[in-house]
Write a structure and sequence with these properties.
With about 425 residues, the chain is α/β, with parallel strands linked by helices. It has helices at about 25-35, 55-60, 80-90, 105-115, 130-140, 160-175, 195, 205-210, 215-225, 250-260, 275-285, 295-310, 335-340, 355-365, 365-370, 375-390, 400-414, and strands at about 20-25, 45-50, 70-75, 95-100, 120-125, 150-155, 180-185, 225, 230-235, 265-270, 285-290, 320-325, 345-350. It is elongated. This is AAA family ATPase.
């Protein structure tokens, strides 16, 4: 069964490539800002933290241009915040935004800040995610569409069925959650998404990755192949005419364009450990690690969870799915033992069913299309609802007996 205790948090849009300078009065606040600077959503920003509060900020910009965002900590009247803001206004460049972190919950003081053009007032002590949210909101256009959620699916080792899970998950989100979804096959040389969806698109992700200077929203739209009403595919060419040596930022533009266009992007991440694949996992909103119930998968999953937790301190842990559970005559590590060793719950356990999964793969179909009532189909539905955060909107499946019952009723009536 899927673990429903971890519901998705609000999606915070990545902060654009800006400069932030903070002037703190306490070491605690300085440490929080340093922690926020290391968050995945701030990877494009340049953050500098120094002590001295508002007075130091005024002095720093008397003969220097101001950054995109100034963060000032004030401890109350003794910091003379109003005087500092008035002085800062005289040296502040147009367009610079100011965030104040205060220690006093005073409505009158807050109003004075707003009157002087302060963009946001945060009460100390603050969490890193609160500061990230505040900065992100400053650069989100009013009325802009919500940023799309990225779900990265990766195998703990090769051959554990991560791609199959990613494809079925994307199909289920699009169909049962009525959510526009893109499945992006990132295994450029050996990807199977086009086979599993019975598609043969002439173009795909290779054109986006190898021609970054041409990539924009219009080109990306032409590279997408329609699978159903709510599901489109960014396919991999699965050809070996060139080697695939991607830079760390190779997929940044592709992901940014997809996030601005559709509410859900499922990333089928190949089982490699490179700069670009690590960056992709770290920056994803949700991560699913697909494992087999055996020792090598356990070791690799534990290592991946450890690295991801270190690099994503403000996100909940990656979710773990066990696949191929219950294969006859194969010794397995139980889900309970697997979870205990990882110190994290198992989100779902998919049963081994060679006939069902083999038939779906050979037919270019999803599991629910082959057998709507299969246990795996229910598990995909639960995972999809959990990740999207709308389990109550799950679309009821049609009753397969209804056509038969209708025919019987017509026969009786005649």
């Amino acid at each position: 069964m899927a673990d429903l205790n971890q519901t998705p948090e609000r999606i915070i849009a990545p902060v654009p490539r800006i400069t932030i300078q903070a002037f703190c009065e306490t070491q605690d606040t300085a440490a929080v800002i340093e922690a926020a600077a290391g968050d995945r959503r701030m990877q494009k920003t340049h953050v500098k933290v120094q002590m001295g509060g508002g007075a130091a900020a005024v002095e720093a910009y008397r003969h220097a241009p101001t950054p995109n965002v100034i963060v000032i900590e004030t401890q109350g009247a003794k910091s003379r915040p109003i005087e500092c803001l008035d002085a800062l206004a005289d040296v502040c460049d147009p367009g610079t935004k100011v965030i104040v972190i205060g220690h006093v919950n005073d409505v009158l003081l807050y109003r004075q800040f707003i009157q002087r053009g302060v963009s946001e007032y945060l009460m100390a002590p603050i969490e890193p995610i609160a500061l990230i949210q505040a900065v992100s909101d400053l650069f989100s256009s009013p009325g802009a569409k919500p940023i799309g959620r990225t779900i990265a699916v990766v195998g703990a080792k090769g051959g554990v069925g991560a791609s199959t899970l990613a494809h079925n998950l994307a199909w289920t989100i699009a169909r049962e959650q009525d959510t526009a979804t893109v499945i992006a096959d990132l295994d450029i040389a050996f990807g199977t998404a086009s086979l599993n969806f019975n598609q043969d698109p002439p173009q795909g992700i290779a054109e986006a990755v190898f021609s970054p200077e041409r990539l924009d929203a219009n080109l990306l739209d032409r590279l997408l192949s329609k699978c159903s009403d709510n599901l489109t595919l960014l396919a991999a060419p699965a050809t070996l005419d060139r080697t695939i040596d991607l830079s760390e930022q190779a997929l940044d533009t592709v992901i940014d364009l997809l996030r601005s266009a559709v509410p859900c992007i499922v990333l089928d991440v190949p089982h490699v450990w490179t700069a670009w694949s690590k960056r992709l996992l770290v920056s994803a909103d949700e991560i699913l690690i697909v494992s087999a119930p055996e020792l090598a998968s356990l070791r690799n999953t534990k290592n991946m969870l450890s690295v991801l937790q270190q690099t994503r301190p403000n996100d909940h842990r990656a979710r773990v799915v066990l696949n191929g559970v219950g294969m006859a005559k194969r010794p397995e590590i139980s889900a309970a033992e697997f979870a205990k060793a990882l110190d994290t719950p198992i989100t779902a356990s998919l049963p081994f069913d060679a006939n069902l999964f083999g038939t779906a793969a050979n037919n270019g179909q999803m599991i629910a299309e082959v057998q709507a009532g299969a246990k795996a189909t229910d598990i995909f539905s639960t995972i999809a609802a959990t990740l999207i955060g709308r389990p109550e909107t799950r679309r009821a499946r049609p009753n397969l007996l209804e056509p038969l019952l209708a025919r019987l009723q017509r026969r009786k009536a005649s």
